Amino acid sequence: MIMKQIYLTIMVGLFLLPTTLISQNFSVSGLITRHNGDPIPDIDISCFNSTSSNADGSYEILDIPPNTSCQLMLEGEYEKFDDVTVLDLLLLRQQLISLNNLNTFQSLAADVNHSTSITPLDVVKLYNLILNKDDGIAPNWQFLNTNTATFPSQISVNDSLNNVNFTAIKRGDIGISSDYMPPPPNASSPVFTIAEDEFELGDIVTVEVLADNLEDIVGMQSTFSWDPTLLEFTSISGMSDIIIHTNTDSIDQGQLSILTVALSEINSASEFILFTLDFKALEDAPNTDNFVKMSDEMIPRQVVWSDTDNNEFFIVEAEYIGSEVQPVSVNNVSSEIEKFDVFPNPVKETLNVNVLLKDKSSFEIEIVNILGQTVFSKKYEGKEVIKEIDLSYLAQGNYVLSLEGTKFKESLMIMKK
């Protein structure tokens, strides 16, 4: 009888011992989004353990011991200059003269120099961000706790915490571009044409940029690019002495980024010379056209139109004649390409791309939006490639599809409806 009692006591102890040693761990989860609801993936967030936000912005930190007190840390590897454009500059200028009211999130983004107030100095700093000039100010991202309206702080984890959501605010990105598209039907659609002449070694070369249909256009940005072995840049000027802000850091590589917010002073629907670029010819002109282009190489092209009746800004599409990205026809493509067709165009869901090359080759198909952001990119190899590309996820508007190999590059405009 005694032996049985001892045996039972031991067995009960063996079963109870693990439960007294194992304690329940907790988790912290939520969403990380922009202030317009767009999810932010790949943000590292930590509290005892670490994780990263998923494609839909969700995250979950697991296995946090009870009674853990930690500082929530959020970090991202986003390029500081992406998404900060002339649109943001126009919104900031309006705020300073009390023509608009920024919401809480926009006001935090507008405080570019982190002084806790919005001043003209923020305008100066924003010019640097748009033109890819590093002013050394950090951090570029702030994460506001949506529930407490505070930045990440010390938390105590005594239970699993759900809906610990954060709004990601990027320094200088006051207006998220997608919120300002598409424009209304009455918005202007500017046309920029680069007029060039033949030249010889040693000539002073003047390149005129003609603009048409700039009615109520208030700001623009672009990159001018050229072959630095062919031309040496000397100066740029604007119509009626309009102020042009530039970044000349990459002049030696044949790139000049520019922006202006003085176009409202022109407000013209007829064609005129908007910019004049002066160069010195280092060689005779080649037997090709368009040796100076408006491109997206340093900063993406963007044009902003003002709805003066409602005091609102919209990003509008522009046509760039004589520049890098233009619609092309099958009869106009490189000799390395025998066929380059896309259909239907406009496209609603599935785009068919038919490519027939002169010889078997590897190439890339890329699609970019009007902000210069890549929305599709894939590499292929072969002589004849027929592919269906799902574009159902894209917003309505114009996009540029490029076909690029080692010996060719062709582009055409497609419209998503």
Taken in chain order, the helices and strands follow as: HEEEEEEHHHEEEEEEEEEEEEEEEEEEE
**What are the low-pLDDT stretches, counting only 5+ consecutive residues below 50?**
1-21, 324-333
Average of pLDDT:
82
What percentage of the residues does DSSP assign to strands (E)? 35-45%
Q: What is the share of helical residues? A: 10-25%
C-alpha geometry: globular
| SS element count, helices | 4
Round the Cα radius of gyration to an integer and report it. 28 Å
Number of strand elements? 25
Through-space gap between termini = 86 Å
Q: Sketch the major β-sheet.
A: 6 strands, antiparallel
**Given the helix and strand composition, which structural class is it?**
mainly beta
Short description:
The chain is mainly beta and 417 residues long. The chain has helices spanning 2-21, 86-96, 104-110, 120-130; strands at 26-33, 44-47, 49-52, 58-64, 68-71, 73-75, 141-145, 154-157, 166-170, 191-195, 204-212, 217-226, 231-238, 245-247, 255-260, 272-281, 292-295, 302-307, 312-316, 319-321, 337-343, 350-368, 374-390, 397-405, 409-416. Helix 2 (86-96) packs antiparallel against helix 4.
